[in-house]
Amino acid sequence: MKKLHIFIIKSYVSPLVMTFFIALFVLLMQFLWKYIDDIVGKGLEWYVILELLLYTSATLVPMALPLAILLSSIMTFGNLGENYELVALKSSGLSLTRIMMPLIILSVFISGIAFFFSNNIMPLANLKFNALLYDVRNQRPQLTIKEGIFNNDIEGYSIKVGKKDNNKNMLYDILIYDHKNSMGNKRVTVAKSGSMIMTNNKQYLILTLYDGVAYEEGNEREKKKYEKSLPHQREKFAEQTVMIELAGFRFSRTSENLFNNNYQMFSLRQLTIAIDSLYIGIDKSYSQLSQNLIRNTFFRKEFLQDADGIKAGMLGALNVSKKNIEDSLKIKKEKKEILQKIYFTGKINIDSIYSNMDTKRRSEILDYAANASRNTKTYLNSSAEEFKFRLKNIRRHEIEWHRKFTLSFACMVLFFIGAPLGAIIRKGGLGMPVVVSVFFFIVYYVISISGEKMVREEMLTTFQGMWLSSAVLLPLGIFLTYKAANESVMMNPENYLAGIKKFFRKNKKVSPDENSADNK
Length: 520
Hints:
The chain is of the alpha+beta class. It has 15 helices and 5 strands.
């Protein structure tokens, strides 16, 4: 039994390693195709490009590993079935689950490695990848001077070349404008020919000019009051060397601390802490919102002291005082009853107060209410946008939290789809297994992306969306394992072809000529 387990594991590991690197290579080519414009033509060193590809490969492992497990499991059991080795094992009394047991244990081990990779390696790889990609994108293109066109890539200079001889590394009809001091075209150099060499560290450009003239005008600030024109300097030279600093062409590395606050750079523990902090922050914001609405919108500050303050404010709106209430001779009986009810009972009848106001006061109150409503609406809209952004940020963190587990679980699910499929198909190699595995992987990937999108759009909870693909494919894996264990032939094309042939033979009609020939 031990030799059998070793044989099955060896049959599985080789296709697994091969398909993993093939899938990783294909995904890496997709990355290069996507970012080729950001990499090519910038004079990057080979080790910078290699480092970028290394970090990119690490970020692509979550897509390459499930595909490799699916394809290798189909190939392994397809080869066993095609060579009748699987039949021999079953005839000796071993069930399919017993044959799969060493690979199940190996898949559990691989799932554990996948979880460790997602939790520890992926955040670091994402951090270094995003920091390096940011530097590569901001790197200025490599200096290229074309004939007859001014080149402004070098900061402070405009260079024009009439003709280039790449074989001799010579330039002809050279015109250089020096703008380093931001004083306009004060210094101009014209040369009939010259050569251009860049230092090994790419920090300086050395121009050797031949048979030329350098023109330079004086500074306007240095002009004396009695001088009507600026001083002018003209210098002829047979050979002149100009060293230009290429500060903008150096490849500089940005500090990784600028990117380490992104949720993609967090481990499981950091994501848990971040999610708790975000929920605490949004709860405080909700509480602050309600307090602000009560304090600044629904009630005026002067009315919040106590009930007596509220009554006094209402009485102030009627331009009366406590003394007026007690003096029944100066106030009408109806008005007195209303005010006494407000002041002494503490009950406020807004309609009664409003009906006792004059027209001007009513207009002021209505204008104030309209302005207060508009301000409240604006405040609520801005607060709603803020809460929407915060909730979206929380969902992003929760998606990344669940992704740590879905990767490792997907390895198990796809193994239980691939292994029984290989036993049912009984085809090895890279033909049918590749077609079937790519189909199921596309289904898995589409469901995963759709579930994540529905989470972002608040159509599903984070748990439902991130585990949707596993919930759909796990029953399929159980069903296929059951069918393969019971010698199902549902995926055997020969059975379908035989059924089709039988159907046509059954419905085939004998022609009259054939009947007459049979009678003779």
